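Help! Submission page says 'invalid entity' but I think these are all valid:
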Amino acid sequence: MTMRRGGAFVALLLTLFANTTPAAATDWTAEEMDALRSLWIGSLPPVPADPSNPVADDPRAVEFGHRLFFDTRLSANNAIACATCHKPELAFTDGKLVAEGIATATRNTPTLLGIAYSPWFFWDGRKDSLWSQALGPLENPVEHGMDRAGVVAVVKHDADYRRRYTDLFGALPEQSDAADLARAFANLGRAMAAYERKLVPGPSRFDRYVAATLKGELPEPEGRLTPDEIEGLRVFIADNKGQCMRCHNGPLLTDNSFHNIGSDIESVKEEEQGRFDGIRLALADEFNCLGSYSGVPVAACAELRFAKQSSEELLGAFKTPTLRGLAQTRPYMHRGQYSRLETAVRHYMAQPQSSIGKSELEPLALPQSIFDQIEAFLLTLDSPVAAPDELRMPPRGR
Amino acid sequence: MPVRVHLGKIAQARYDLPMNKIFILTIVFSLIWAVGAAQSQTARVETAAKRFSVTLEEPERPVAINVMHSRIVRITTSNGAAIADAKIKVDGGMAAHGHGLPTAPQATQYLGDGRYLIEGVKFNMSGKWQLKLSIDAAGQSDTASFELALK
Ligand SMILES: [Cu+2]
């Protein structure tokens, strides 16, 4: 081989190399690749079954639930619907510090993206099914301010709703026997849950990046990450750096469990024991998995039966939120205490002590600039709602 | 009755009290073997005061993060006789992170032949977890500790 041909060969190799491995490609270790795959939307399993909701995946229930979700008649002042606080255009949040219904609530409205994957609902996990969760705001005086009789009456007096209800669940109770009424009320929760099960996140820029990276390909422009975003991602997944995946893990970036991260606010500590109260409320709830309206055997209630109840670790612990859709879900944390993502992320740098219980966070030895990169990475998790368009709008014919 | 285990789910057995060094070495070697062969045997330990011998059986499916599951333990005397009347308390957590288990698992059923069903086990992050059993049987108490590596 002559010098010239040798040079051409090397040049050819270089071009081939350049075509498959971009100069800016990140050399992730095998361990990091595992972490990327675990956070990737492609690793999200189908929405888990809910044996306590026989209509969970019935398209008629989705339609009915969609209508109920947007219906302001289910409120004491005819002005509040679930969608008043869970706005589709804000990833089903409201942009407010704390929610405002009939009156001002005490907590920030969480996103409903991927909510059907969680075994627990509310920041303190005081509900153990998606359908029983929906009953809470309806009877909450500061949210919808209704009672179950009022809610069932709306359905009874609307011919279309009445038909939809009977198609799915049989006749509505005529005389208001308390148990019959509760059963009908629970069924309306089941229809709303069927709708909410459709609110799953779709692929974000991050997911496109991972999909390509796992295949060893160069991401398409809509799947490219900047060097800052990549650095933020690297720190996020490293247990000796950001430690974020201790709690924000899996494709929804949440373990759906409860942690004290020093996010409680001193001035309201009496009312904010977090999960410590939440599990007690869940156990006392007439609509819980073990109650007479769930319709499932005790064996189906592992989450409730084996929930941790008496540990100090529950004090001041709140549910880990998903980190998908953060660009739309400000302000952040259960009190909405951080109006910007930047300050929410810097919570992990400042690491405030908890005024009740003890924070689980470990001091991070990271330079301040890293937190901007982490924030940049978080914004690549810009998942749309993967549900059909019509489910992201008010129902037609209303 | 050695049962095969999924990839490194049960990585190592650990003790609460200082123990026979040879036995520890055996465990360490089987760990090395387990990692090398990407599989390990069902974890078996003597309890801290050597009153019982406890086997944590292979899970039915590989244990995934954030998934509620059950485990089976078998408790025998140190000479291998099945123990039927044990009262078991389950505890554990991640020593390295300083937190406990996310759930409160319980021994809910005696399955015969010294085997007990433990329900309500969940691990909510990857890393090294400890599962600790306090065992009360035939007027004696002792503890066993297992170390599990979750990917
Ligand atoms: Cu941990």
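Support: the input was valid. A stray whitespace character was the problem, and the output above is from the cleaned input. The helical segments of chain B are 21-37.
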